[in-house]
Every structure is written in C-alpha cells, then in structure tokens.
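Could you help me review a protein record that somebody else here produced? Do not assume that whoever made the record got everything right. The record follows directly below this note.
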Amino acid sequence: MSLRSLAAALVVTLGLSACVTVPSSDQVRAPQPLKPVDLERFYSGRWLEIARLPMRITDGCVAGATNYVIVNPTRVDVRDTCQSGTPQGREKAVGARGEILDPGTNAKLRARYFAGFVTWDYWVLDHAEDYSWFISADPTFEKLWIYTREVPSAAERDRLVARAAALGYDVSRLEFPAF
C-alpha cells in the first residue's frame, strides 16, 4: 500500500468514526430513564416532534415525526421524517435499524442510520402513563426531543417543557418546529 493510499484510508476512517455517536461511560451525563417503556405501546406508530435542541441536521426541518415498527423484542425499525421549510414542503426522511439496549425496560435504543455509519443512542427519559407524550435525549446531555401523539395545546407544550427543565435541560434553547 502506498503512503498516499494509507493516508486516504486514515482520513476516511477518521471521518467515519466522527459519525459514530455512541458515548463512552465517562460521557454519559444525562439522567437515567425514570420508568420502563411498554414495547408494544411505545415502539409502534407515529410520534410528532414538538420540540428539540438545535442540530445542524434538522436546520430547516418542520413537522418532524418518528415512526416505529417492532421487528422483534430487541429490534425496532425507525423512520424519521420532516418537511423542508414549511409543513407542506418536500419530505426529508431517513431510516434506521434500532436495537433495544435494555430489554425488559426498553427505554434505551441505539439507532444505526446509513447502514450503521451513523449511530445514535436515544433514552426515553420520561413518558406519559397513557403514552401520549415522551421526552427523549442522548446520554451525553447534548440532544433533547419532546414528542407527542397529537399536536399539543400551548398549555400541554408548556408542561412538557417544564418537565424537560426539571430533568436538568436548558429549555431556553429549544426549537418548536411548525406543524
């Protein structure tokens, strides 16, 4: 292998490793999930993204949603969508293969996007008993999402934001994409 080929391989390897966001144990700073998640009730159907912390990948995205399909007790297919610019804009979508990291509790999911080149861990920090809403984050305390099954009232949205603040998140940075 030539020096040039070795250098190119190193650049590609480093670039791909930057896409993997599975945290080491010393990076875990988020609170632990508060309660177990019922696999059938939670990981099925569509959830609406009503709030999120800013990320480059979601710039310009509105009307975000995540759809889950249970494949088996430890695997879930994930499809994240949003509309570009306006709720009537062009749909942007990405799929992932999800792995339940804590079978039985089901509150920690590892999603592998783009054939596993991008991996994110999601924790369901809290959810409604009737599964009408949930608050999710990555373990590093850098990402946060609030999801509901239906578009919430302003009062309900305010209660969910207050719940995220009680979990220790800086909710002043939340984005509220249009629906």
Remarks:
- The mean pLDDT is 87.
- Residues 35 and 65 are 23 Å apart (CA to CA).
